[in-house]
Structures are given as structure tokens and as C-alpha cells.
Amino acid sequence: MLFAALMAIVSGCGEYQQILKSQDYDLWYTKGLEYYEKGDYVRASNLLSPLITVSRGTERAETVMITYAYALHKSGDNMMGGHYFREFVKTFPGSERCEESQFMSGYCYYLMSPKPRLDQSDTEAAINEFQLFLNLYPNSERVDEAVRCMNEMRDKLVYKSYLNARLYFDLGNYMGNNYRSAVIAAQNSLKRFPDTQYREELSFLILEAKFIQAEHSVIEKKGERYRDTIDEYYAFQNEFPESKYSSKALSILETSQKSLRNLEKRGLLVEDKDNYNG
């Protein structure tokens, strides 16, 4: 049985090499589709690749390009697979297979999307391709799947931005005011993705960063920054009344109010328009 299996493999390799040497494009087309159907995607893609140019303008052109794209995708080459799915849409805009090709373009980027700590260019590209799919095919059966993938990619971007904001926060005053950078990074995330599942974490990070920034400020800026922290507390508490950070947030409020009163007693408040003492 082992000998028979080895002979079959050798025979198959011999057949494949003979096909490549033949330069018979009709045979390449037939065998390329045959290998694809058998799940031999590498051989299929090798045979179909030259046919993209050769078959241009013929009835086979659509089948060659989309099968080649799928063969690349299924063999694990999502970068090139996605490229040819996009090329298919551009080359055959009137094809009935444009819908699936546009979806697959986004899906290939989705599969290439890395962990949140890494560069998210492919994640951004996936979102863009899926958004184009939704714009072009709002009634497609794959709308729900595209939306699910987009939401997953968006959450990944938000989590990365949260990690970036957290990094600034952890750097503190090292080589500059990194708390301000943390606030800006977190606010930008919330503006871009207001419905993110990390909204509570980002919102509390803003509150905490503003408070620490006030604590480390020069006297002239302390009053303004404590007031800003108190405003941020009430915004946070209104949105997340049952937050897991409620006790920490309340501590920040009380400390900020106490600090404001001390500044006022010492005559160090630059301006005191509002009453923050409760």
C-alpha cells in the first residue's frame, strides 16, 4: 500500500511537470480547474496565473481570475488573493460575481489583520473594503457577516488606541506631559468609535489622566485643571452610574474638590467662576 501511494505521488508529480512543459494553455486551463476542484490549490494557482494575461478578452477570463484568486486565498496567500479579488471587480464590473469578489477582498484583509499591538494597516483596509461592499450591495445575503467583521475590526482598532493611550498614561511625565497625550488619544478613539465596547475604560482613563495632570501642574494651572477633572467626573458618572471604576472616580472627585478649596483658602485660584464644593 505504501509503495502504491508513493507511485501515485510520483505519477502525479510527473503529470504536473508534463503539463507545465507542454505550454498548452487549453490544457493548463482544464487541469488548473481540475486541481482546484481536488483541493490542490498551489498547483491550480501555478497553472492559472499565466492564463490571466493569456485569456484576457476571452470567455474564460472571468473564470480564470476568480478561480486564481480563490486558489491563492485557500492556499493561505490572502495578500495576493485579496489583490486579485479587487482586480476582478475592477476588470469585470458587470459580472454577477462582483458581489462575492468585493466581499472576499475585505475578508482576505480580515484574515490578515494582526494582533492589536501590531500595525493595523490590514485592519483598516478590511474595514474600507467591507464598507465599499455594504455601499454597493446593501441587500446582499452577506451583509450581516460583513457588519460582524467590520465591528470586530473596529474594536481591534479601538483596543489598539486604548493600548496607545494606556502607554502614554504609563509613561506619565517621562520626557514631557504624556498624560495630555493619553487624554487626546483616548478622546480621538471615542470620537471615531463612539459605540466601542471599550468606551468605559477609555472614559475613565481620560478622567484619571486629567486628575493626575492637575496634581502635577504648576500652581497657575491647578485650579483650571481640577475644575476640568470635576466636570469630567460628572460626565463619566452620568454615563456609567454603575461603573466598576465608581469608587476610584469618587475618590478623584473628592480629592479634586478638596484641592480646590485649599487653593481658594490660600488665595491661589486664578479664577473661581463656579462653585464646585457641592
Could you explain the architecture of this structure?
With 278 residues, the protein is mainly alpha-helical. The termini are far apart. 75% of the residues lie in helices and 0% in strands. The chain is built from 13 helices and no strands. α3 packs antiparallel against α5 (61-74), α6 packs antiparallel against α7 and α12 (219-239) packs antiparallel against α13 (246-265).
Key descriptive features of the protein:
disordered C terminus; 278 residues; disordered N terminus; mainly alpha; single chain
TL;DR?
The chain is mainly α. It is built from 13 helices and no strands. The model is unreliable at 3-12 and 272-278 (pLDDT under 50).
Please give the share of residues in helix: over 70%
Overall pLDDT: 89
Which structural category do the helix and sheet elements fall into? mainly alpha
Give the number of helices. 13
- Characterize the largest beta sheet: strand count, sense, and whether it forms a barrel: none
Task: Describe how the helices and strands are arranged.
Blueprint: H1 2-22, H2 25-38, H3 41-48, H4 51-54, H5 61-74, H6 78-91, H7 98-112, H8 121-136, H9 143-171, H10 178-192, H11 199-215, H12 219-239, H13 246-265
